Please model this.
Amino acid sequence: MNALNIEKGSSSHSAYDLRASREEGVERRTLAVLVDNEPGVLARVIGLFSGRGYNIESLTVAETDHTGHLSRITIVTSGTPMVLEQIKAQLGRLVPVHDVHDLTIECPAVERELALVKVVSTGDKRVEALRLKDAFRAKVVDSTLESFVFEITGSPQKIDAFVDLMRPLGLMDVARTGVAAITRGPEPL
Model:
């Protein structure tokens, strides 16, 4: 979304917004995919989605096992239960994929995201932006006489709510990392 749409208070919904109207039977899922950390693996995973017309709402990837050269890809996607099962099966058949886990249904999981939110304002709007920052436990990571950059972490819904409240206060830009998710409790994935 560009700054112009943000300034005008665009009515488009976030990819994470579960309140947005959705086709009957469409579900949102968070998948954790353990893959070899080698060139081209991410392109193959993304190619599987684009080649079949599946949507990726969020994607994060990083090496998680340096000695084993393994990376974890966290994908937030949506579809009917049948489509989601196809996605998991097709991911599992890719050669560099070791495991595919549906964190939404297999086990309780924690999802978090980080966002940087730039707000340009003065006067009362500036004071209100700082008040809301405290309510959402965001941090100021850059400040000028006319702008702030806030860092906020939390669920995608928390970040959506913060961004929505900053719109009338001078929201200028938003950068989001995408969802990182992990299972709850002592058991490994």
